[in-house]
Amino acid sequence: MIVPAEEDFLAAVKKLEDSGFHGMPWSYGTVDPELLGTDPLTLEIHRGEIQKYERFDQHSVRFHFPSSFNIEEKVLLLQSRYVHLSPPSAAQISTAPHLLTQQFFVSGNLYFPNKIVLLESFIRVILVEEAAGKVVNDWSPLLSAWAISYICGMLDVGADALDTCEDEKVGAWYNENIGRDRGGLNKAINKRTGRMEKRGAVPSAE
Length: 206
Description:
Elements: H1 9-18, E1 22-23, H2 40-52, H3 54-58, E2 60-64, E3 74-78, H4 80-83, H5 90-95, H6 97-103, E4 104-107, E5 110-113, H7 115-131, H8 139-154, H9 168-177, E6 185-186, E7 197-198
Antiparallel strand pairs: 1-2, 2-3, 4-5, 6-7
């Protein structure tokens, strides 16, 4: 997934197209319609998946790699206003370069956000989806899993990581979902379930 600056989004789309990347106009939640066939049940299932990714699709453009790359993965361009994340502008780079190096790992013209910046972005998208009534879909639970199990748990982000976030809703979501008032996330993985659990949580019977 690549997030260009908002003003560069269309230029990034054109650059990929000019470089031989093949557009995928169908939803991220499905496959090329020509591969689905005509089975009514299959078509109904995929219609449901398309609805789950409606907002994600509206704010992204999806591509296949050129056949010469022999790569199956997709390339996704995401609009920065949707994920609340953007590469720094030239003005930001010139005025506060030390802050940017704390927030991003830089490789050429690519900026990789650090775990705190990425965590905040995930939570902001979740909150937007919740506000839009898209709480039960494949995108928000996936982001929640990345935010809590991966970033907080596996990457060992502290419970106070978002205490200084300007948006109180972001910090409140994080505190609630790591069970901070109940001791926080137990970062020891349950050997039976393979999951991390909140402290004080009743063990799963699965």
